Amino acid sequence: MTLTHPQARNQIFNLTYGQSRPINDLVEITKKNFPGVKTEYKERDKLIPFRGTLCIDKAKKLLGYNPAYPIDKGFQQYIDWYKSMASQGGAPHA
């Protein structure tokens, strides 16, 4: 959609669901799908800014963007796709 939309030419868009989520939400989904995965936490670099939710208003206005999947649903679908590709030999095995 974005690549072929005339309004997208030379533009930058935030294509998110529009709600901020902690990275630990993704960690928990990953652990649920890949038992035994190890997580390593590192101290946040002081130069990295804290961010909240990215604004998707521009994408909504220019492209008619309407997010359909919150991160927990979309990430789970990605993992399911990845596992199916891995089982068919099309992706690296996790």
Structure write-up:
By secondary structure, the protein is an all-alpha fold. The chain has one domain (6-36, 52-87). 37% of the residues lie in helices and 0% in strands. It contains 3 helices and no strands. The protein has helices spanning 23-33, 57-63, 71-87. Helix 1 (23-33) packs parallel to helix 3. It is extended and about 45 Å long. The mean pLDDT is 86.
Strand segment tally: 0
| Whole-number total of structural domains | 1
Total helices: the number is: 3
Whole-Å distance between the termini?
Answer: 30 Å
Please give the share of residues in helix: 25-40%
Give the ordered list of helices and strands.
HHH
Largest sheet: none
Mean pLDDT: 86
Tell me the Rg in angstroms. 17 Å
* Strand percent estimate: under 5%
- Tell me the structural class: mainly alpha
Name the overall outline. extended
Give unreliable regions as ranges: none
Q: SSE layout and pairings?
A:
Blueprint: H1 23-33, H2 57-63, H3 71-87
Helix pairs in contact: 1-3
